[in-house]
Design brief:
Order of helices and strands: HEEHHHEHEEHHHEHEEHHEEHEEHHE
Number of domains: 4
Number of strands: 13
Distance between the termini: 135 Å
Number of helices: 14
Structural class: alpha+beta
CATH architecture of the largest domain: 3-Layer(aba) Sandwich
Strand content: 15-25%
Strand order of the largest sheet: 3-6-4-5
Radius of gyration: 39 Å
CATH topology of the largest domain: GIY-YIG endonuclease
Shape: flat
Helix content: 40-55%
Length: about 400
């Protein structure tokens, strides 16, 4: 009896093992089968995708060829790039690139008006009126025969250099090739610095000789050219030299210029504003820090200090990155504003020098004693602190180390 039961259990065990083996084999087969199905599905999807893409491109190509309004100049990475020839050139057309407008205008030789200039400079968000343009065109040109001699160099400096300011005058310069009459026009807000780069070999010819003008100068020398200069008065609007340069660039004669559109650099950097101490008057605004420092002759470190500490500049101005809408803009030319800054700077320096020579009285709170020093320098030596620190304690009225009280004293 026990033997029969044992045989039955063994048979059942073998059957279970066989079933488990069959299931495992079938599972692996099913797994491989599913992998093959998924792989085939991906391949099929890719084929369908490629078919659909080719189908769509074929429809587009048949449509464009049927319409016959597009050209196929070249391909890029398998995609066709189209260039429209439908729209005609007009002042208000946005389909043409700005270079196309410039080249078409130069080719036709039409007169250059403020509308043409404004269309060319549309992306830079600047504009000029015809009245302002006519005013610029009426400015006189001063002609110099090259090369510059000692006699002509003094006249050139007198024309473009402004020694009382940190920068020279703005304007444009025109080089004319005597043989071919080909011309080159350039502009700068500092003509003295720009022309110095041309005529001083240690500055100019160390740079890479690029473009059309510089190689020609190096090959034939300055004696092959004449130079004309137009100085922009300081009372004229800002960027006047750039507008005048753009006017000449739209002329066929100026074929030594490779770039035909002036970069005004309007939108570079962040806006900076110059107010009075109460933020009620707006003296100046700029679109970049470089422009701010260059126009007003203010050093970068002074700007940084005023912004970081929210301190006044020369005890007369406030520099800010924020526009105060309540502040009233003052109609002051750059010339007058720079004169005002120079005046405030001189007054500030005079006060500083007087303060260094004044008698300093120091009251010691702990021992109830008063010390007198003949100058702020001697007081700084005695206490081992800077003159600026002593001045700050005098201004604030605070005690140094909660013990010493500094103040100016008029009598020795």
């Amino acid at each position: 009896m026990w033997c029969d039961l044992l045989e039955n259990y063994i048979i059942i065990f073998y059957i279970i093992c066989i079933i488990i083996f069959i299931i495992s084999v079938k599972y692996s087969e099913l797994k491989l089968l599913f992998k093959k199905v998924i792989h085939l599905k991906k391949i099929e999807d890719k084929k369908n995708l490629k078919y659909m893409q080719s189908y769509i491109f074929n429809i587009k190509n048949r449509f464009y060829k049927k319409q016959n309004i597009f050209k196929y100049p070249y391909k890029l990475n398998g995609l066709i790039r189209y260039k429209s020839t439908v729209a005609s050139l007009s002042n208000n057309s946005n389909t043409y690139r700005l270079t196309d407008i410039v080249n078409e205008h130069i080719k036709k030789g039409n007169p250059t008006t403020n509308k043409i200039i404004n269309n060319v400079l549309l992306n830079q968000k600047v504009s000029i009126t015809q009245e302002e343009l006519n005013k610029l065109l009426n400015l006189s040109k001063i002609k110099f025969d090259l090369p510059i001699t000692k006699e002509t160099y003094s006249a050139l400096l007198a024309l473009v250099d402004k020694p009382q300011y940190r920068r020279g005058g703005a304007g444009i310069y025109i080089f004319t090739h005597k043989t071919t009459n080909n011309k080159y026009v350039g502009s700068s807000n500092n003509l003295f610095r720009r022309l110095k780069q041309y005529f001083e070999k240690n500055v100019f010819f160390n740079n890479k000789i690029t473009g059309l003008l510089l190689p020609l100068i190096k090959k034939e020398g300055f004696e092959a050219f004449t130079l004309e200069i137009i100085v922009i008065p300081s009372s004229y609007p800002k960027y006047s030299h750039c507008f005048l340069e753009q006017y000449y660039l739209l002329s066929k004669e100026f074929n030594l210029n490779k770039h035909k559109i002036v970069n005004f650099r309007i939108n570079q950097g962040y806006k900076i504003y110059l107010y009075d101490l109460n933020y009620k008057t707006l003296y100046y605004r700029s679109n970049s820090l470089n422009e701010f420092c260059r126009d007003l002759g203010i050093h970068y470190s002074s700007y940084k200090k005023c912004i970081a500490n929210d301190s006044p500049y020369l005890n007369f101005f406030k520099i800010s990155k924020s526009l105060i809408t309540e502040a009233i803009p003052i109609n002051l030319s750059y010339f007058k504003l720079r004169e005002l800054i120079i005046k405030c700077r001189k007054e500030s320096l005079n006060k500083l020098h007087l303060s260094y020579g004044k008698v300093i009285e120091v009251f010691d709170k702990e021992i109830n004693n008063t010390m007198t020093f003949t100058s702020i320098i001697k007081a700084s030596y005695r206490f081992g602190i800077s003159r600026t620190t002593i001045k700050n304690y005098i201004t604030s009225g605070k005690l140094y180390k909660n013990r010493y009280h500094f103040k100016f004293y008029d009598k020795i």
